[in-house]
Amino acid sequence: MTTYSYFALFVIIIIACPFQECYNREMPNILVNDRVRVWVKEKHLKNHTGVFKKFRNDTLFIHLDNADTLVPFPLGSVLLLEKSLGKKSNSGRGTIYGIVGGMVVGLTVGILNSSGSQDNDAIPVPNVTPALTMFGGGLLGAMIGAGLGGEIKTEHWVKVEI
Questions:
Q1: pTM of the full predicted structure?
Q2: For a FRET experiment, which of 18, 54, 64, 116 has its CA 20 to 30 Å from that of 132?
Q3: Integer distance in angstroms from the first to the last C-alpha of the chain?
Q4: Phi-psi region of 109 (alpha: psi -120 to 50; beta: other; left: phi over 0)
Q5: String of b and e for 104-115 (b: at least 16 CB within 10 Å)?
Q6: Which of 130, 137, 100, 135 has the alpha carbon at shortest distance from 112?
Q7: pLDDT, tens only, 102-118
Q8: Cβ-contact 95, 150 below 8 angstroms
């Protein structure tokens, strides 16, 4: 196998691993005071986020983030109901983006320097192969991406059967 074949295999493994946890999730139930997101069809598709309070007569009652009272949502108007899994960091996704971006930059630097061009436009890196600069760029990109992704927290949602 060539260096590029190993690289392709490495990228496939890195990208596929984080998505494995998506297949192992079970459908959760919602309980009182769970944070939920409700997608409803009004004039256009719209979502509402809040805290689930009660269910009565085919109607969900949710205390919305931007309302002071309970808001009823008839099940007939609910297209999708999601439960919050909480806010989580995005270090895994940042690492993947960092690896890919760093490898592209590293490969570009390696190709520019291996072309034998002595122009002032080339970045001066002596006797370094494109594969080595690609690996180094990917490693540096992974560290930067993991650090930045770890600082960014987003709320993760999972679908609930209604």
A1: 0.57
A2: 18
A3: 50
A4: alpha
A5: ebbbebbebbbe
A6: 130
A7: 999 998 988 887 766 55
A8: no
The CA distances from residue 15 to 36, 72, 92, 135, in Å, are 29, 41, 10, 16
Contacts of 154 (CB under 8 A, 6+ apart): 87, 88, 90
Count other Cβ atoms within 10 Å, centred on residue 157: 18
Residue 137 near residue 9, CB atoms below 8 Å: no
* E-strand stretches of the chain: 35-41, 45-56, 59-64, 70-74, 78-89, 153-160
In the block, tokens 């930045």 appear at: 148
Tokens of 146: 């993991």
Please report which confidence band the pLDDT of residue 141 belongs to, taking 50, 70 and 90 as the band edges. very high
Q: Which two tokens stand for residue 6?
A: 């190993």
Q: What is the DSSP string of 97-125?
A: HHHHHHHHHHHHHHHHHHT---STTS---
Token digits of residue 120: 């002032």
